[in-house]
Amino acid sequence: MGALITILYYLLVAFFAVCFLCNFRRSKNWQTEVLYLIVLLPFLLRLFRLK
Amino acid sequence: MKNYGWLRKSIFLAAFLLVFIFSGLSFYRSRHLKEPLVAGDGLLEVKKLSHYFPGIKGSLNDANIYVLGKENSGAGGGAALVLGGSHAEEPAGRLAAWLLVENALVEAGRVFVIATANPSASTSTRPGGAYPPDYEIPTPWGRQKFRQGDRWSNPLDQWPDPEVYIHYPSRQQLAYMDIRNQNRTWPGRPDGTMTEKTCYAMTQLITKEKIDLVIDLHEAELQYPVISTIVAHQKGEDLAALASMMISSEEGFNIGVEYSPAALRGLSHREIGDHTQAIPLLLETPEPFLDATRGRTDRSLLLTGKDEFVMKAGRHGLLFEKLDESGWPIDVRVGRHLSSIIQILRVWTELHPDRPILMENVPSYAEVIARGTGYYLKNPDRAPAGKLFYE
C-alpha cells in the first residue's frame, strides 16, 4: 500500500512538472515565466530523486 | 516580437538548467558521500541489519552492525548495543559510536555498535533549516568529512507522510512527520514503513542476540528540558542512578537521570524496555545548533556550540542547560557520551557479575577534551586489510 501511494505521488509530481513547463511555454509575461521555473525546481529535484 | 519572446524563454531556461544542475549535483554528492570507518582490533565481525530481518535487505537502512569482542568472549558475558545516529543531526552520538568501533577492546561480553542507526536520515538536511551538508573533524592525518544529516528519514526514501502518524502497536496519535523519526517508531513492525522496519530489525537483533543493555546516543537543544541526562526505562532506574553518581564523581561533569514516561510511545527508552528483555538508556548532551533561536546555522556552530542568540535566551532564563562564551564544543559532547558509556558498563558489570561487559581503550571525557575527537579517528588510507568500512 505504501509503495502504491509513493508511485502515485511521483506520478502527481511528474504531472505538475509537465504542467509548469507547458504554462512556461505558453506564457507571454516574463515575470510569470520566472515564477513557473522557480516553482518547477523543487518538483524536478524530487522527480529525479535529488532532494 | 515573437522571436524576442523565444529568446527570453531560452535565456531563462538556460539559467534554470544551470541552477538545477549545480544544486542537483550538490544534493547528489551530499547524499552519496562515503564516510570511512576503520575498525579497531576489538572488531569481531560486521553484520548487516538484514541479518536479523531480511525485509530490510536492499534498503538504504540496512545498516552496518559492528560486533566488538573476542572469540568466546561472549560465552558467559553480557551484551550491549550502542546506537549512534538515531537522529543523524546529532553528531556527537555518531562520533562517539565511531570512536568505540575504532578504539574499543572488549575483554568480556560483546558490544554491538550501530554507528548510523538511521542511514537514510544521515543523507538529508532539514528543509528550511539552512543546515550545512557536511562537517569535518580535524585529525593528525588530515580532515575527515561526515554527512550532517537530519532528525527524520530522508523523504526520498519514505514519502509521503500521513496526516496523522498512528504509532504501532499503541495506536497513539503522533505528529505526522514523526513516522520518519526513528525515535518514535520503536518497536517497529515488519510490514510498516522503512523507518518502522528499521526499528523492527533492531528489535529482532536485541531479542536474538540476548542484548542486556541498549544505549541510544542523542543530543538536545538547550531550550528542551530533557538535556544532560540519562533517560531510563523503569527496568534501568538503579543502573542509571548509580551510573549518574559515578559519572558525576569520577568523570568531571554532571549528568542527571530522567525516567521514561509510560504514556509517551515510540521512543527507544520506552518501547525497547517494554517489548524486549533489554534495559534501554538514552543519553542526551547539549547541542546549541538545534535551538530554534540560534543564529547562523553553519559548521562552526555545529562544532563549537557557540551562539550569541542562544546565549541571550539563556540570560532570559529560557535554557535548561548553561551556555557561556566557551559554547558546547563537539569534543566535550563526544567525551560526555564516551565516559557515560564507560561508567554505565562498569556499573552494569558490578550489578551483574554473571553477565559482565568489560570494555577498555575507550577515550574518556578528559582525554577527548585534551586531544580532540579527531585524535582517535584512524586514517582510512592506512587501514589494515578487511578493517575499512563505509557508512
Weakly predicted, low-confidence segments of chain A: none
Q: Could you tell me how far the N terminus lies from the C terminus of chain B, measured between alpha carbons in angstroms?
A: 56 Å
Low-confidence spans of chain B = none
Strand content of chain A: under 5%
Indicate the structural class of chain B. Answer: alpha/beta
Helix content of chain B: 25-40%
Strand residue content of chain B: 15-25%
Tally the beta strands of chain A.
0
Structural class of chain A: mainly alpha
Whole-number mean pLDDT of chain B: 96
The helix/strand order of chain A is HH
Oligomer: heterodimer
Helix content of chain A: over 70%
Strand tally of chain B, please?
A: 16
Structure, described:
The complex is a heterodimer of chains A (51) and B (391). Chain A has helices at 2-26, 30-47. By secondary structure, chain A is mainly α. Chain A is elongated. The mean pLDDT of chain A is 95. Chain B is an alpha/beta fold. Chain B contains nine helices and 16 strands. Chain B has helices at residues 2-31, 91-103, 194-208, 237-250, 268-275, 299-304, 308-315, 330-351, 365-371; strands at 36-38, 43-48, 64-68, 79-83, 105-108, 110-114, 134-139, 142-147, 165-166, 173-174, 213-220, 229-232, 256-259, 279-286, 358-360, 388-390. An eight-stranded mixed beta sheet of chain B has the order 2-3-6-4-11-14-12-13, sandwiched between helices. Chain B has a two-stranded antiparallel sheet with strand order 1-16. In chain B, helix 4 (237-250) links the parallel strand 12 and strand 13 (256-259). In chain B, helix 2 crosses helix 8 and helix 8 packs antiparallel against helix 9. The longest helix of chain B is centred in the N-terminal third of the chain and has 30 residues, at 2-31. The N and C termini of chain B lie far apart (56 Å). Classes of the chains: A mainly alpha (51), B alpha/beta (391). Chain A binds chain B through residues 2, 5-6, 9, 24-25, 28, 30, 33-34, 37, 40-41, 44-46, 48-51, and chain B through 5, 8-9, 12-13, 16, 19-20, 23-24, 27-28, 31, 124, 155-156, 159-160, 193.
